[in-house]
Amino acid sequence: MFWEKKLDAWVENIRNVSALPLRLELWNGQHYDFSSGTPEVTLKVPHASAITSLLTPSLANLGEAYVEGKIEVEGKVKSIIQVANGLASNTLKAEGRLGRMVRSVTHTKKRDAEAIQYHYDVSNDFYKLFLDENMVYSCAYFENGDEDLGAAQLKKIDHILQKIQLKPGQTLLDIGCGWGALVLRAAQKFGARCVGVTLSKNQYALARERVEAAGLSDRIEIRLQDYRDVTGTFDRITSVGMFEHVGIKNLPTYFAQIRKLLADGGMAMNHGITSTDIENGESPYGAGEFIDKYVFPAGELPHISTVLRTMQEGGLEAFDVENLRRHYARTCGIWADNFEANAEAIHRVTDEKRYRIWRVYLAGSAYGFERDWISLYQVICTKAGRSAQQLPWSRKYIYAQQ
């Protein structure tokens, strides 16, 4: 048959280029081994209709086939991700549609709210099964490299609050506050008065519960609110893992809003995932396409150069920039391990399709950070035009009290 000849040629071509620890099993009992070693991954094709996904094995095609149940995959998820990338990189050219495409998305308050709720309002119980005890859903900070996830997440929050020199009695706005971990820490340890905003109904409800349980309702306000609708002024502003939803074209407006809300002499910090492509392109081999379709609809990742330029356009001066890519590779790797370890419990709180989406998404993200497809930057900024006398001489203040 025609497809058999094409499949034979495809397998032989990959074998000649790279030995992958993969076994391919077809519906008719036929199988192919892609190396002479013991397979770490077994890919099962229950029907001939899935062959096209294999012959053009972009990460979008393979991911969709797995998520939709057109193929079955056995093996450790980290090995699965490595094999999938091996199939893509040894078959396809990392250019054109499968290269680092620049995707332009129209953002409205309604669409952004829907995208946030799609991703975050799965259920709080779902996230509890792979996050740390404080439910921090952003890059942790492994100061020494040997911390457990919970300790590294608290260090991340303290690292941020130390960077912005948060003092007792100051007001803090946290844009995209998640389940409230940062504002709780800011009030408890640093004595700040905080406002946290989110568009996720589940996050809003649980964050309010946690604030009340901590006896901090007089110091922390949680709002179900778009950052564009916030008014007033704040001594300090943080945005952690939120600006990926803003849209590249909207970044100058986003930073201008931060400037508008920032008190004179105030400090802000933007912590977010960035593209490593200078043209703001998404991850290669269709990985970005998969994430846009199944994980983060309407998400866009700017290059750090775009972040700095649009920050200046918004009236802010960046004065401290830190790359935490290694830290996010470790964070996502731990999340992926937790997800695998709690697979049975996760199946009880969500359906098979979402389980498969998140299984490959978490492990794939760890792989992407490790391979420099994506990165993570913390940028500290103030209102542009300040006297140089108001800026710190060094970064010693960041580490003095940690």
Query: What is the percentage of strand-forming residues?
Result: 15-25%
Rg from Cα: 23 Å
Main beta sheet strand tally, sense and closure: 7 strands, mixed
Name of the top-level CATH class of the largest domain = Alpha Beta
Q: What are the low-pLDDT stretches, counting only 5+ consecutive residues below 50?
A: none
Question: Order of strands across the widest beta sheet?
Answer: 7-6-5-8-9-11-10
Range of helix content: 40-55%
* Mean pLDDT over the full residue set: 91
CATH superfamily of the largest domain: Vaccinia Virus protein VP39
Can you name the CATH architecture of the largest domain? Answer: 3-Layer(aba) Sandwich
Number of strands: 11
Number of helices: 16
Q: Which sequence of SSEs, written as H and E, runs from N to C?
A: HEEEHHEHHHHEHEHEEHEHHEHHHEH
Shape: elongated
Domain tally: 2
Indicate the structural class.
Answer: alpha/beta
Our measurement of the CA-to-CA distance between the termini, rounded to an integer number of angstroms, reads 66 Å
Give the CATH topology of the largest domain. Answer: Rossmann fold
Family: Belongs to the CFA/CMAS family.
Domain DUF7884: 12-93
GO molecular function: methyltransferase activity
Keywords: Lipid metabolism, Methyltransferase, S-adenosyl-L-methionine, Transferase
